[in-house]
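Annotated sample (chain length 138).
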Amino acid sequence: MEKSLEEIFDFKNSDQAELDLGLRQRNFNTLEERLSLCKVCLNKKVDFNKGLLCGLSLEKPAFTTFCESYEEDTKAIEKLAPGKVRASKGKRIILPIVMSLLGFIRAVIRLNEESIYGWVFFALGIAWLLSIILDKEE
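Output written by the structure step:
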């Protein structure tokens, strides 16, 4: 079974030479496979009646091996690359805050009992929250 373009464009596990080689050795037998390459090509053109077309021929792609007119669209590739797009800190921070609050509420409600689960959830939520706040990738 051939690799999908998402697997070919996995930057974490491949270098640029492997990516180019994977594309050049791949067969594009169906229109869907050809269009998957066109989606990450700078020469693509969108026609609202016909769909995705080659911007050079203004036709649906007809190649069966690698397209010699292919020009890499790095922005489109980055969108396909798994793990490259991360949620902003604002979105990632919500879940640990909720976890901390629920843990704290449970701990306060069951203050007289010997259950420590509320405090454990509270501590884990705070630790998770701190790891996001101190994350230096953004």
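Annotation: The first helix runs from residue 5 to 8.
Annotation: Residues 5-80 form one domain.
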